[in-house]
């Protein structure tokens, strides 16, 4: 006798789960009925529910290859009751021969002796002592007390009396289960879930991932609320439930704190959840695209952790401020502290500025594998734009890390201002960088060097040259010319070069301590050639000097987080170097609006080699200090 099948029935064929979506004939096939099934694994199907241009059923998942037709006579895996599955896995000593407890472990043809497993099996056999139970993928069909009864009563899914008789038997076992995983089973009605939970008075966590439920009508009963009274964690991943069904289901879990709704194809959350105590919500792997689609979540006052991982989500601002159904004022996620935006569609750095607006309490953020992370220095940008976060991609943000990121951001925006040619462009830069002005008040306001309005045509020699300013202290220049004089040996050994004044003469003449020379140099020459050119400018030998490029970026001088304020280096030579550098900048009219005792210009040596000068220098101007080796 063929088994009776019905719409919405859950079946397992060789361990692969599916749901019956159609029962009846199919045109242009052999006589007899077919089962139109939707596979949980879409790769096992062949179509979307249509055959030869005629549609027989609709796949809820929407996958184009999730459906196929099978004969009702095809052998299926036997369903189990909850208690039978529990006994089979955790008390296998009473099970049939060939169970895992009686199977011998063999490696290379040799039987391995199991040591200590008898004690573990005895502990697991005490079902009343189990606290964590995982019955994932064991073909659990409901509360019925045996596989045969589950199969016989399945033809009458509305027969609640039969089910509750088995609930009483389950209740007599006095189980102490706290965490229960019933994922990827044959559950199809919430009556069975209510029956199982009603017998587990200590249950606090329930995982129902991968099941397919036919309706939620039975959840309106008082028995549902009593059965789910103590549950604080609920997993409904990959159940393909609509948002309205989820709202209805969760309204019976009054103690709920953690809710997982991943992989349900959700695109818009229309109505707010009724349980206001939820503080952790997982919406990963859905179809949510914007802040507007999750606006109703702002009515969860205790929500502190939200995952939007692998959604086509962006942080673009809505055209109109979104509002709740109960309030006409603009709202924010005021209590949210942890946000997962990994693998989302966020690509624009400026969109990060809205994070502080809509998530003002945010402290932890994940952005891994989002297009945003492909942007150069994305981590520094994220830290600088979000002043409240203390952890980014599982990395703690230290005080030094934040300071470096904010200074980098300041200098980068300053370069944008330097490139702006009109007031409208400057205003646009300010609007895209709202953190610029507050950071200037915290650190300093960068010097903005406006570019010359006349720009050379691309490809011309003028467009490829840079105005270099080289400067060397008179003291270093005298030493270089005295030690490596270009004059004949007899002249240089008898007395110092006449062109170099004596120290006391230099002081009396009050000459500047720094000598500068300016030269236009193509960026395509090698650093070897640059070194030789500088040596000719100052009439010294190239191997006696090194070139130090002064960048537009600034670094803090000394100091640690544990010290009060900042301090300079204890090395006296470093102090002299800093003082000499400040004097040189003062002579060139380069005055900064910042505390010079705390900051110094970042320096970089240009090594002699075959690389082009353009590898180290960019822009139309460069300042290089010449020092003795």
TrEMBL record:
<feature type="compositionally biased region" description="Low complexity">
    <location>
        <begin position="485"/>
        <end position="497"/>
    </location>
</feature>
<dbReference type="InterPro" id="IPR036859">
    <property type="entry name" value="CAP-Gly_dom_sf"/>
</dbReference>
<feature type="compositionally biased region" description="Acidic residues">
    <location>
        <begin position="556"/>
        <end position="579"/>
    </location>
</feature>
<dbReference type="InterPro" id="IPR000938">
    <property type="entry name" value="CAP-Gly_domain"/>
</dbReference>
<keyword id="KW-0677">Repeat</keyword>
<feature type="region of interest" description="Disordered">
    <location>
        <begin position="556"/>
        <end position="601"/>
    </location>
</feature>
<feature type="region of interest" description="Disordered">
    <location>
        <begin position="485"/>
        <end position="513"/>
    </location>
</feature>
<dbReference type="InterPro" id="IPR050836">
    <property type="entry name" value="SDS22/Internalin_LRR"/>
</dbReference>
<feature type="domain" description="CAP-Gly">
    <location>
        <begin position="25"/>
        <end position="71"/>
    </location>
</feature>
<keyword id="KW-0433">Leucine-rich repeat</keyword>
<dbReference type="Pfam" id="PF01302">
    <property type="entry name" value="CAP_GLY"/>
</dbReference>
<dbReference type="InterPro" id="IPR001611">
    <property type="entry name" value="Leu-rich_rpt"/>
</dbReference>
<dbReference type="InterPro" id="IPR032675">
    <property type="entry name" value="LRR_dom_sf"/>
</dbReference>
<feature type="compositionally biased region" description="Basic and acidic residues">
    <location>
        <begin position="580"/>
        <end position="598"/>
    </location>
</feature>
<protein>
    <recommendedName>
        <fullName>CAP-Gly domain-containing protein</fullName>
    </recommendedName>
</protein>
């Amino acid at each position: 006798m063929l088994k009776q099948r019905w719409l919405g029935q859950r079946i397992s064929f060789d361990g692969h789960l599916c749901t019956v979506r159609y029962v009846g004939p199919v045109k242009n096939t052999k006589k007899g009925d077919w089962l139109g099934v939707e596979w949980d694994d879409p790769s096992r199907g062949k179509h979307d529910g249509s055959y030869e241009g005629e549609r027989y059923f609709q796949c809820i998942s929407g996958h184009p290859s999730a459906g196929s037709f099978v004969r009702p006579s095809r052998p299926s895996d036997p369903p189990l009751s909850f208690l039978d599955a529990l006994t089979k896995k955790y008390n296998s000593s009473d099970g049939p021969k060939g169970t895992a407890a009686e199977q011998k472990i063999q490696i290379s043809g040799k039987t391995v002796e199991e040591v200590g497993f008898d004690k573990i099996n005895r502990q697991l056999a005490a079902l009343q002592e189990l606290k964590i139970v995982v019955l994932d993928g064991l073909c659990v069909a409901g509360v019925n007390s045996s596989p045969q009864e589950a199969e016989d009563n399945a033809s009458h899914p509305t027969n609640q009396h039969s089910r509750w008789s088995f609930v009483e038997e389950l209740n007599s076992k006095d189980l102490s289960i706290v965490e229960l995983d019933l994922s990827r089973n044959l559950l199809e009605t919430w009556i069975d879930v209510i029956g199982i939970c009603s017998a587990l008075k200590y249950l606090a966590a329930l995982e129902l991932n991968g099941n397919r439920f036919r309706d939620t009508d039975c959840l309106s009963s008082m028995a549902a609320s009593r059965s789910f009274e103590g549950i604080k964690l609920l997993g409904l991943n990959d159940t393909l439930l609509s948002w309205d069904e989820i709202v209805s289901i969760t309204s019976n879990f009054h103690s709920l704190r953690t809710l997982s709704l991943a992989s349900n194809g959700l695109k818009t959350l229309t109505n707010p959840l009724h349980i206001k105590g939820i503080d952790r919500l997982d919406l990963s792997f859905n179809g949510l695209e914007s802040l507007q689609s999750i606006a109703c979540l702002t009515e969860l006052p205790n929500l502190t952790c939200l995952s939007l991982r692998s959604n086509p989500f962006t942080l673009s601002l809505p055209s109109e401020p979104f509002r709740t159904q109960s309030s006409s004022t603009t709202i924010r996620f005021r209590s949210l502290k942890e946000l997962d935006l990994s693998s989302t569609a966020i690509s624009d750095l400026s969109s990060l500025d809205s994070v502080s607006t809509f998530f003002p309490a945010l402290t932890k953020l994940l952005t891994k594998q989002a297009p945003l992370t492909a942007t150069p220095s994305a981590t520094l940008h994220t830290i600088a734009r979000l002043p409240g976060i203390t952890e980014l991609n599982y990395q703690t943000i230290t005080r030094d890390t934040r300071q470096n990121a904010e200074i980098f951001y300041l200098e980068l925006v300053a370069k944008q201002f330097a490139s702006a040619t009109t007031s409208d462009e400057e205003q646009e830069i300010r609007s895209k960088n709202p953190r610029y002005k507050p950071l200037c008040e915290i650190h300093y306001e960068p010097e903005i060097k406006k570019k010359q309005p006349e720009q050379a045509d691309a490809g011309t020699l003028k467009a490829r040259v840079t105005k270099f300013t080289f400067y060397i202290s008179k003291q270093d220049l005298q030493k270089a010319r005295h030690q490596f004089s270009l004059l004949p040996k007899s002249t240089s050994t008898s007395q110092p070069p006449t062109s170099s004044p004596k120290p006391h003469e230099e002081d009396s003449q009050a000459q500047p301590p720094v000598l500068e020379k300016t030269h236009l140099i193509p960026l395509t020459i090698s650093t070897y050639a640059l070194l030789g050119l500088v040596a000719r400018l100052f009439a010294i030998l190239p191997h006696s000097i090194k070139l130090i490029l002064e960048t537009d970026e600034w670094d803090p001088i000394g100091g640690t987080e544990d010290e009060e304020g900042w301090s300079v280096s204890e090395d006296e030579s470093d102090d002299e170097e800093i003082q000499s550098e400040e004097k040189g900048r003062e002579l060139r009219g380069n005055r900064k609006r910042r505390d010079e005792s705390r900051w110094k210009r970042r320096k970089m040596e240009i090594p002699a080699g075959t690389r082009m000068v353009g590898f180290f220098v960019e822009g139309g101007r460069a300042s290089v200090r010449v020092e003795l080796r």
